[in-house]
Design a protein that fits this description.
heterotrimer, A alpha/beta (353), B mainly alpha (258), C mainly alpha (286), A: alpha/beta, D-Maltodextrin-Binding Protein, domain 2, 13 helices, 12 strands, globular, B: 258 residues, mainly alpha, MetI-like fold
Chain lengths: 353, 258, 286
């Protein structure tokens, strides 16, 4: 799961829904919160009301990939930023490098609102460093008007009828992983031979690829640039809302789950403000606003029931999800990683032909 | 015969210019498009301009870009001009190497420079942000100033300076009263060019920027990649307008002078 | 004696350039070369172990073919640019002084418009049911969307569009300085217009043409964002490969090795240019 795509427009349209503007503006010395995450992760109203309620100014800066984030964070030696929201696997690396501070749970009074399904994952088994924000899965979405057969899983994407008509995510672990899944393997295999075999299989997919893109893929699906796409949950939400006729497929081979979580860097200038912010957005009413803006699955079970009908089917996990059908992408050995990069470069070269 | 060849050249240049301006004109037209999807015309609207003016981040990015462009072009002008001047005065073997090295930044693909700056600045432990941006941009702005000023100095009539010296002027006086006015246009165009290059740079900025420092091109790049809204079209139209005003102003000033 | 003393004084003026260049151009480039011989660390960063592995890795077919594809794209774009930019610059030099000034202004406006934004204009044109499709379908030349966006030709158009001006300016500045009386003399001596062009004009404008070629060829191997935006990320340039290795695979030493190879290629091209044209600085760069 990657880029959170802003519901900027729908947010602007729904600007009326302004939640409790408490105007208790205590004159405190000016505090700042350096928030570092993707663009458009929060509705403006939430940031503004947080500012109003606590007197803390939010400096929002954004990165485009998790790797950029880690690079910047390690250059800053765990300083500069107060709160970061990024993807699961990169957080594990950040924790290993000692760039993440332990949370002070005393300050997080609303922590019980978190849906435990999204906790105790591989990157933070004891939940001592992170609080989940949005969660999502990789799904296939297609337009039955232009795709004349039924897609039920990843395997169907190899169908020649999809020639030059498929958009995919630009993350090699996800895409190579998809090929691994069709072969009945795990996303996280360290077996180089298996990864290479997946690469061979992927080469056969190349003629179908029209577009490799992480952001705004739904626009290409809506405008008819592509007929089918592998997308992140937020994009699926946007696509379905724009065109309800689109079909959403949870691939039968297995589902890749991703979690974006919040963490405080080890040398954060203002960890106190970061705790306040985490706790603030854990309030059910605020969380509801955030998830409706974000378009990812809600990780706040107290917020689930508040989410309006219009969004409900997109923002809460489908009932038939079980722990067995999902798998998270976790860090793998350096050799396996290198094999992935090579497979990916070969695949991209083949797509560009 | 002659008129025919001229009309052919006119037509050729006309077509190229039309194609060159086509995307720009379309951007301006679609900046007034009510619909979010740019392939559909949904009626006339100025809402994207309104949204643009509410976008504080965009203005911050614009401001950063201006600061960056001005600082790096000034730094480059000082370093480049002095260097070019010194090289005409001192003949030494190192100059050739230095000239090659200092102009290298605009000869090699930008991505190389971007990656070496990223690696090198983190080696030095410099905090990424405006400082690293200015250093990086100055590096690729120097060649423009240096080469322009040097070309001007080489083409300059040396006898003028000699005559002044003969009349008893000090070196500083010669530089201030004769050399500087003569190379001033070259310095000015070097700075303008530097500013333009810095203002438009994506690749190097993307690699060496830090917390909270977005330049306009970075902002536009992330917007194009993440959420394209016609807000970008509106921004482009406004920048185009600013450019046109500047160009008109400079032509008008040029005419006044004449 | 006095002369020598005078020169010493001028050293101070050279100092900033020397210092800056050594510190912020020379040293970083040197560091890149060093990095390219180092081994990457297991998960993140670099070890101080010497290795040739990074260069050996480039020899793998997949990376070699990236270089080949990148060169091919640069070659195609540059060829198109030559055929559009050379005549343009040449014709422009023949305009009246006022015409030249106007043309310069006409070229400056797009130059000053953000290059990314200009590329975005092409998305509007190329996208399914975009301007071009509407035009062609309206004229009944085609009856369904062409799907031009995210194709190889779209990337080529983007490259040509982004770099054409450099060729125009380079050729123009060289044609502008040209002594037209030589062409007339050739014509008076009975040479056909074509012969006069190939024997005199082309020769005299060669520095501009070559410089234009370099100014378009070299950047077109690195402008990964054009392949990104217009090519749907499918066309892999050496530039995108370096970026991927650096940002996605965090394999800095391999990225450095790729950059070193790219740099050697670039330097060779410039040296070749200097040798053929006999001009030190690139014509019309400024």
């Amino acid at each position: 799961m990657k880029k959170a795509v802003a519901f900027a427009l729908s947010a602007a349209m729904a600007a009326g829904i302004f939640a409790g503007c408490g105007s208790s503006s205590n004159q405190q010395p000016k505090q700042e919160l350096n928030l570092f995450t993707w663009m458009g992760m929060f509705p403006d109203e939430v940031l503004e009301s947080f500012q109003k309620e606590t007197g803390i100014t939010v400096n929002y800066s954004s990165f485009d990939t998790d790797e950029t984030m880690l690079q910047k964070l390690s250059q800053a030696k765990g300083g500069d930023y107060d709160l970061i929201i990024a993807d699961d696997y990169i957080i594990q690396t950040a924790i290993e490098q000692g760039l993440v501070a332990k949370l002070d749970k005393e300050k997080l009074t609303n922590l019980d609102n978190v849906n435990p399904i999204y906790q105790s994952q591989f990157y933070d088994p004891d939940n001592s460093y992170t609080v989940p924000y949005g969660a999502g899965v990789q799904t296939i979405v297609y337009n039955p008007e232009t795709v004349n057969f039924e897609i039920t899983g990843y395997e169907d994407l190899w169908n020649a009828a999809l020639e030059d008509n498929l958009a995919i995510i630009g993350n090699y672990r996800v895409i190579n992983g998809m090929a691994l899944k069709t072969m009945g393997e795990s996303y996280n295999t360290n077996d180089v031979a298996k990864i290479e075999a997946a690469g061979q299989k992927l080469l056969e997919l190349a003629p179908n690829i029209r577009l490799i893109k992480d952001e705004n893929t739904q626009d290409d699906l809506i405008s008819g640039e592509v007929g089918a796409a592998i997308m992140y949950t937020s994009q699926v939400t946007l696509a379905k809302m724009a065109n309800p006729d689109l079909k959403v497929v949870f691939p039968k081979e297995g589902i890749g789950l991703g979690i974006m979580a919040q963490f405080i860097p080890s040398q954060a200038p203002n960890p106190d403000a970061a705790h306040q912010f985490i706790n603030y957005i854990l309030q059910p009413e605020v969380a509801k606003q955030c998830f409706e803006h974000l378009g990812y699955y809600s990780t706040n079970k107290a917020a689930d029931e508040l989410i309006s009908e219009e969004y409900k089917e997109f923002l809460t996990l489908p009932d038939n999800f079980t722990a067995d059908s999902t798998e998270m992408i976790a860090p793998i050995s350096a050799e396996a990683e290198e094999a992935h990069v090579k497979v990916w470069t070969e695949f991209k070269n083949a797509c560009g032909q | 015969m002659k008129t025919r060849s001229i009309s052919f050249s006119r037509i050729f240049m006309g077509i190229v210019l039309v194609v060159m301006y086509l995307p720009i004109v379309l951007l301006v037209i679609y900046s007034f498009n009510e619909s979010k999807i740019s392939s559909v015309w949904g009626g006339f609207s100025i809402k994207w301009y309104q949204q643009l003016f509410r976008d504080k981040e965009m203005f911050k990015a614009l401001w950063n870009s201006i600061i960056l462009g001005v600082s790096s072009s000034v730094c480059a002008a000082v370093i480049g001009t002095l260097g070019a001047f010194g090289m005409t005065k001192i003949k030494c073997k190192a100059n050739g190497v230095m000239e090659y090295l200092s102009t290298l930044p605009i000869m090699i693909p930008e991505i190389i420079l971007a990656m070496v700056f990223l690696a090198f600045f983190s080696l030095l432990g410099l905090p990424f942000g405006m400082t690293t941006l200015i250093l990086g941009h100055t590096a690729f702005c120097i060649p423009y100033c240096f080469m322009l000023v040097k070309a001007r100095l080489v083409g300059m009539d040396a006898s003028l300076a000699e005559a002044a010296r003969d009349l008893g002027a000090s070196e500083w006086q010669v530089f201030r009263d004769i050399t500087l006015p003569l190379i001033a246009p070259a310095i000015a165009s070097g700075m303008v060019l530097s500013f333009a290059m810095s203002f438009d740079d994506v690749i190097i900025s993307l690699f060496v920027t830090g917390v909270n420092v977005n330049t306009l091109p970075i902002r536009v790049y992330t917007q194009i990649k993440t959420g394209v809204t016609p807000e970008i079209n509106a921004l482009c139209s406004l920048m185009l307008l600013a450019t046109l005003i500047l160009v008109a102003l400079s032509t008008w000033l040029g005419k006044e002078k004449q | 004696m006095k002369q020598a003393k005078a020169s010493k004084k001028y050293w101070a003026t050279l100092l900033p350039l020397y210092l800056f260049t050594i510190l912020f151009v020379g040293a970083p480039l040197l560091y890149m070369v060093v990095l390219s011989f180092l081994q990457r660390a297991e998960s993140w960063g670099v070890t101080s172990q010497f290795t040739l592995q990074n260069y050996i890795q480039i020899l793998q077919p997949v990376y070699l073919s990236t270089f080949a594809d990148s060169l091919k794209l640069a070659l195609i774009s540059t060829t198109i640019i030559v055929f559009i930019g050379y005549p343009f610059g040449y014709f422009m030099a023949k305009l009246s002084p006022k015409g030249k000034q106007r043309m310069m202004l006409a070229l400056m406006v797009p130059f000053w418009t953000n290059s990314l934004i200009r590329l975005y204009g092409w998305i509007i044109i190329f996208r399914a049911n975009g301007t071009l499709d509407q035009l062609l379908m309206g004229l009944h030349i085609t009856d369904s969307p062409l799907k031009l966006l995210y194709t190889y030709p779209a990337v080529v158009v983007g490259m040509v569009y982004a770099l054409l001006q450099f060729m125009i300016f380079a050729v123009y500045s060289s044609a502008e300085k040209m002594d037209w009386s030589l062409v007339e003399a050739a014509r008076d001596l009975g040479a056909s217009p074509a012969k006069a062009f190939f024997t005199v004009t082309l020769k005299l404008t060669l520095p501009g043409l070559l410089s234009g070629i370099i100014l378009t060829f070299i950047p077109s191997m690195g402008l990964f964002f054009i392949a990104d935006i217009l090519g749907g990320n499918k066309v892999v340039l050496v530039g995108s490969l370096i970026q991927d290795q650096l940002v996605k695979a965090h394999n800095t030493p391999f990225a450095a090795a790729l950059a070193v190879v790219l740099m050697i290629m670039t330097t060779l091209m410039i040296a070749l240019y200097r040798k053929i044209s006999g001009v030190r600085d690139l014509e019309g760069l400024l």
